Amino acid sequence: MTTSTATAGQLSTSAAEIYDAFFVPALFGAWAGPLCDAAGIAKGNRVLDVACGTGATTREAARRAGDAGHVTGIDRNDGMISVARSHGDGITWEEGRAEELPFPPESFDIVLCQFGLMFFDDRVAALGEMRRVLRPGGRIALSVWDRAANSPGYAAMIALIEEMFGADAAGALRAPFVLGDLTAFSEVLEAGGLGGARVTTPTGTARFASIRDWVRTDVRGWTLSEFIDDAGFEALVAAAEQRLSRFVDADGSVRFPAPAHVALWSKGPEPD
């Protein structure tokens, strides 16, 4: 499977910094706790966070594993890892691909993957690698976004971007939702050896300080900069302020539902 830079979610360092400053508080940070809850991280656990991005979930896992544990974050995007390392909090950061994890078998008690599975070149191979590095009795917890249609703000933003900038630009923003269909998600889990995983669909909330901040996050903190220049950015802000006002609260902030699927799988003991 081949993917473009845009649909693979690959960011420059400057975009990763915007992602960390805006996307993490708007969306991803709020999901770190629930994913760690699902995984049942305990003091002393060895934890791997695959596709760790700038480390929001990794840092939450480290807080829960404590000084007796050890947490590693790995991401193939050097811009993301550079920003993650800048937080400097005793976590091991690695640059590498989910399909070829550079760790021995049975190295970790818990493997996490928050909103990364959608972007892997080979999802089945990546899940196989997660299983390989997990000890018997360990757990994999991963999340993917529900369908864009169930996140009304993003459904509307995708439609507006497609109208203004075309299908390729809209596709870059649609990419995070490609495993939102539960049947498709379940098929990937099954093919990757995670059959029988327990899947739930909690609803989170996307929050942005304003329409402008929302557009800045999606365009400058994601992969849309290759499609939308400065003039296009301002045009999109103006159009969104007019046409997406239903998502704006009285104080000017933006809020809308953003549900996700969370899968939990436990590795049984090896057969005799």
> What is the CATH superfamily classification?
Vaccinia Virus protein VP39
Radius of gyration over all CA atoms, rounded? 18 Å
Give the structural class: alpha/beta
Strand residue percentage: 15-25%
Distance N terminus to C terminus? 36 Å
The tally of structural domains comes to 1
What's the total number of strands? 8
Overall CATH architecture: 3-Layer(aba) Sandwich
Give the overall form.
Answer: globular
- Give helix and strand order, one letter per element, not per position: HEHEHEEHEHHHEEHHE
Mean residue pLDDT: 89
CATH topology: Rossmann fold
The biggest beta sheet reads: 8 strands, mixed
Uncertain segments of ≥5 residues (pLDDT<50)? 1-13
Query: How much helical structure, as a percent, in the residues?
Result: 40-55%
If helices are DSSP runs of H or I spanning 4 or more residues, what is the number of helices? 9
Summarize the structure.
It is built from nine helices and eight strands. It has 272 residues and is α/β, with parallel strands linked by helices.
Summary tags:
alpha/beta, 41% helix, Rossmann fold, 272 residues, eight-stranded mixed beta sheet, 21% strand, 9 helices, single chain
